[in-house]
Amino acid sequence: MPKKNIFYDPSLSKRHLKSKIFKYSSIFTLVLSLTFLLVFLTDMVRKGSSVITQTYIQIDVAYNEKTIKRTRKAIDKKYRKLVSRAWLRNIPKQVEEDPSLMGTTQKVWVLADDQVDMYMKEYYYKIKPKTLKTLKALIEDNRVEKKFNTIFFTKGDSRIPEYSGILSAIIGTILTLFVTMIVSFPIGVATAIYLEEFSNQNSLFSKIVEININNLAAIPSILFGLLGLAIFISFFGMPRSSALVGGLTLALMTLPIIVVSSRAALRSVPQSIRQAGYGLGLNKIQVVRDHVLPLAFPGILTGSIIGLAQAIGETAPLIIIGMIAFVPDAPTSILDASTVLPAQIFTWAGMPERAYIERTAAGILVLLSILGVLNGLAIYLRKKLEVKW
Question: Could you tell me the CATH number of the domain that includes residue 195?
């Protein structure tokens, strides 16, 4: 009869089984998440890559007094359905820039209508048979080309799909984030330094401030939009849809993230650094300013950049304060009406024309690229400053 092993634990095999189940479940979840991310990025690249090119057709354009008043008369009737309305509206501006065009008929490359562009890119299109026949004749004569789409990168939003771009949204995003950073960073870091280094942790005031900061971090972002609408627009009378209001609203939302991350960075500095400073006769301000803060700065900077990256992707609070409005021109100051990339993407996603789909996907790729750059910058600065110190 075999001797029983007194050291054998019957529950050991069950624990091993549970450990394997947990391990492979984690791997499966990770693979599934990466698969969804890959599918999403692949779909965005597939839909958005076609925005790089735009279709142009070569036709005769007559520049005279009649066509300046009625731009549709500048081209032959059979080509009018193929040409972008936005390009026709620019004929007076073309004559103003080059007066020698007046009284002449030029063979020029003209921006094509969005349906023509969709046809050339082999997407769904709506072109009448007669117009399609004319287009095919132009293609046979090599008078239809796809050229680099400079409009998308140099123009603002437009109700005409082929003439819409992201320049105004990018500039509005930069101005908004500038306001967000210059407001939230110093206030957030100063608050963290006070709570972590100077305040009495057991005082009623410190506890109230800490509770409110934690509560602000858990509030839905749309409520910050309502707060911005009530305080900055209704109470202080700041211009609606401006980068100033948008930046201040996002600063309120980013502030708790910066405070929490900055406190964690300050807390990670060893107490021996502080004790050594006190041992040398330094006061508390000198210890914090010259020793604690420089050592904690990489973590503070990383948390601030990540908070800024989160703010750049917010749409809900900006919709409330009017930054979803149609803004064709790029803002020149923080007081001008402006929009941001997430709001521009949201607007394009609701448009019925097929040409806006590729612009929506391209806008998402641009936004993801900016987020990637910000996160990469946070990692780089953290590593560089850690080596320095």
Answer: 1.10.3720.10
